[in-house]
From TrEMBL:
It holds the Pfam family DUF3268. InterPro entries: DUF3268 (IPR021686). This is Uncharacterized protein. The lineage of its organism: Bacteria, Pseudomonadati, Pseudomonadota, Gammaproteobacteria, Oceanospirillales. Residues 1-21 are annotated as: Disordered.
C-alpha cells in the first residue's frame, strides 16, 4: 500500500499526541457565529505557502483564521480577526521573556501567568485569548518581570 502524504486530512499520530489541551477542529466561527469554517491551504489565503505546515482554519464569511499545530489537524487556538491576531503577536513577548531568559521554565511561566489572570492553566494560551485578554496577559507578564 502506498504511504499517504501527511496532511491535516492525514495527520501525524505522534505530533497529534504531543499537543496538550487540543481544541477540536472548528466548524462554527467564534468571531461571527456562522458555520462557515473551512480547512484551507495557505495558497487559498496568501497565494503562497509559509513554513512547513501551510494550513489554516478560515471562516469564509468574516475571514477570521487560525493556524494549525505542525503535522496535525489541531488548531493553534480560536479563530482570530486581524485585531486579535495583532494583539496575540504584540502581547506575547513579555511572557516569552519570562522563560527564555532562564528565570523560570515554560511550565512555571504558564502557571504564574494563569494564576495572575485567575484562569485554569489548561486555558492559558495566547492562541485562545481575545484582544482584551491578550492585553491583560501582557500586563501580567510585565508584572512578573518579563520585558
Ligand atoms: Zn466568521
Amino acid at each position: 500500500m502506498k504511504k499517504e502524504r501527511v496532511s491535516p486530512w492525514n495527520p501525524s499520530r505522534r505530533a497529534t499526541e504531543r499537543v496538550k489541551n487540543p481544541l477540536p477542529a472548528p466548524t462554527t466561527c467564534n468571531c461571527c457565529g456562522k458555520d462557515t469554517v473551512e480547512l484551507q491551504h495557505h495558497d487559498q489565503l496568501y497565494g503562497r505557502s509559509y513554513g512547513n505546515w501551510p494550513y489554516v482554519y478560515r471562516c469564509t464569511s468574516c475571514h477570521a483564521y487560525v493556524g494549525l499545530h505542525p503535522f496535525t489537524s489541531i488548531p493553534l487556538g480560536t479563530l482570530a480577526d486581524q485585531a486579535t491576531r495583532e494583539a496575540r503577536k504584540r502581547c506575547k513577548p513579555p511572557f516569552e521573556d519570562l522563560h527564555r531568559s532562564g528565570r523560570m521554565s515554560r511550565n512555571e511561566a504558564y502557571a504564574k501567568l494563569a494564576a495572575k489572570l485567575q484562569i485554569p492553566v489548561a486555558e492559558c494560551h495566547f492562541g485562545w485569548f481575545d484582544a482584551a485578554m491578550c492585553e491583560r496577559a501582557r500586563q501580567a507578564a510585565i508584572e512578573l518581570g518579563g520585558t
